[in-house]
Amino acid sequence: MYTRKSFGLFLSYLLVLSVFVLGCQSNQNAAPGQADAPKNGEAAGAANQTVPELKIGLPSDAGPLNIYTGNIDYLTELVFDKLFSPSPYVEKPQPWLAESAQQLDDVTWVVKIRSGIKWHDGKPFTAEDVKFTYEYYRDGPANRHTHHVSEVPHISKIELDDPSTVRFTCAYACPTLERITFADLPILPKHIWENVQNPRKYTDLPIGTGPYKLVEYKADQYYKFEANKDYFMGSPIVDNLVMPVIKDPTAIFNALRAGEIDISARPVPAELEASFQNQANMKVVQTAPLSLIELKLNYEKAPFNQEAFRNAMSLAVDRQAITDTVLLGKGRPGLKGYPHPDSPWTNPNLSTPYDVEKAKAVMDELKLTDQNNDGVRETADGKALAFSLKVPSTEPAWIRAAEMLKEQYAKVGIKINVEVLDSGTMATVSQTRDFDLVIGTIGAHGVADPDQFVMSHRSSYLWNKKIPYPAMDELTKQWMAETSVDKRKEIAFKMQELFNKQPTSIVLYYPEEKFAYNAQKFDQWVESPGFGVINKFSLLPDGVKKAVAKE
Amino acid sequence: MGGSWFSSAFGKKCIQYVLVLAVALTINFALPRLAPGDPLEFFFGESTINELTPQQRQQVEHELGLDRSLWQQYADFMTGVFRFDLGSSIKYGKPVTEVLADRLPWTFLLVAPSLIVSAVIGIAIGAYAAWNRGKRRDLLFLTGMLTIESIPGFWIGMLLIAVFSVSLGWFPSFGAVPIAFTGGGMEYVLALLKHMTLPVITITLATIGGNFLLTRSSMLDTLGQDYVLMAEAKGAVKRSLIFNHALRNALLPVYTHITMSLGILVSGAVVVETVFSYPGVGRLLYESVIARDYPMMQGVFLIITLGVIAANLLADLTYPLFDPRARQRKQVEESP
Q1: Which terminus, N or C, of chain B has the lesser number of Cβ atoms within 10 Å?
Q2: B81 touches chain A (CB under 8 A)
Q3: Residue ranges per domain, chain A?
Q4: Which residue of A15, A143, A203 is in closest CB contact with B120?
Q5: ipTM reported for the complex, 2 dp
């Protein structure tokens, strides 16, 4: 009865809807020229001419850039400034929010604050903000900056001498405060942050002093920035930055090719390089990121807790072969060890020799011999030297490197079992230290900042301060007592030498990165060490750009 | 009289669904926590987390509510569900319900038209092919549909992007709306449609094969029935024969299949949403799994569970509308 009618109704409903949908589709087919992405960017990019808009594709999302809810340095620094710039990874950072810094004695510094700077909400920036920020990082909820105020170095007192002068007093010598600490910690507005209850759940858009204001943020979708025309270092040369988050690697390069974005913050993989170089308007720029790919040894476990054994582990790795095979030569082998050789704070004479015979000799001396002739060495009590090597499934190059390590270690009688795990599991593994060996990566903050090298030996990354390490502990003591920058550097060089002889992190290679961009739209990218080309200096006027960027 | 509701077919169904829901919720709670990994790492990035001292870690865990006992978290979750308070997402720092409400419409926008188009076209071609069984056009459709059916969805999506976005530039390759859009209402709708076209086509193509094959085989069954022969003998015209006599009966299993697949309306198309960077529930699920964002995962799983249960309920309740036999059986059962 009603069924026939309702059935007919149902069918015609479906039909109408489908016609509607199809209609819409064909409608769009009929108007192909109106795709919203400009196909051939209007000629722009000449020096000192402002560009109305740039679209930057991001491979990941960093939350609303409030430091406590995720962090990507190059984005955070569009909004926030530091006392000195660009970073601790250069020879001599320039005064930025600070006008000058002066060391009064071994443990005291005074910083004069630049006047006339305003926060994005119009409130004036003051020395109070600096004092608040340093104290907040030190005493508030922990973040990556905390131990650079509370431990290495330890700033015990922060006082205002007058409304524009901040006095920092350290608990022990701090000769590099200006060159490292001041160039590392972004300054927060006191009037906002003193009212934040739980910074981990604080999702308001950030207020900074930086060249760009974040005006819109949609989690996992996009960021939209507007130029801060009153920026104290000069009005930015791009008015608006639109940054869609495109996590899929194929999708982000398709969008770049289709002209929907002007640059991808994801480095171009070697196999796509040529296709971008051949495309009109496109350029490919190479940068040397201050990062490295490392094989981490769990120094808390036997036999990795033995210095001589770690020495043998390092001697057995043919880093050149790994780079040649896995990276097709595009990258540098880790022949200079840890930290990154491009950092001004790294000993230029470090080396990590490859010597199979010596590795074997060292293990023989340790009484790690192959007693049952199965090709794998055993400890005195008969336990085979068989270890698991954990690698994240998201990094094909690392997996190939792991397979090569397996072969290389087999040559010296060590058995490696490669385990490929999802990134969530990998994270827990390295956090709980439930591993023998893992492959991972670490960026500029970890491998170009000398304070972090010391800190990593205390925080458990490279060593744990609760475990005695007499030789290193002695050097650390000297380092902390040293009051001159140069002499401290010398001590740091000795620590690095010691580290690489018996490393807890074996550097496999230093990656290279290439970025493809639409040069017709914008061609003024400059590299800032540790930040790549997408950084605030690229977007600032010529004079400022030259002062801080890498030549 | 009091017990009659519980003993009625509808009441029984409801109790059954409540039970299913309770079990599903418990599994939803347990699964994320059984997986190795925890949210802290994602929250800070690996290098930062390794720099935190154990005390600092504990402090962060406390701030995020991860230090409470499992039972406590379970109790909070179960009571929260009924108050529609699913807690706060660790990754997004916002209430889970708010994030979900933000994503659901986008998923509906993609999946609803895809399912409809896929059903209508799948059924039409399926019926046509069955009627022309064994002829060249039937074979053509059959091989074509089998081919499409066996192509993975993400690959269809990538092909469409390569052709229509990169080469021809007709459609955008990512996102749901143009970012920083300043145009007016009509332009906005147009841009919206433009953004959804390729993903909709992708999901349609990925699901159309199933509808086609099911309709075709069901139709073949029906066409062999005596009553169709009878109708033909009575002199029914071809159109009436196909639509009124054969297809109507053949559609019953297809209808069930389609209603059940409505469940994916909410879970969305994880793969397609990822390929097109579309901000739907599917991609949200993927993101929260990667981030080990327990409250968010629970929220998404809950929505999927509810979606599947609702789709089942819908199929159960509306089936009699289409099949008079089910209706009559019910009357027979319910008569004293």
Answers
A1: C
A2: no
A3: 1-66+215-288+514-551, 81-209, 292-511
A4: A15
A5: 0.71
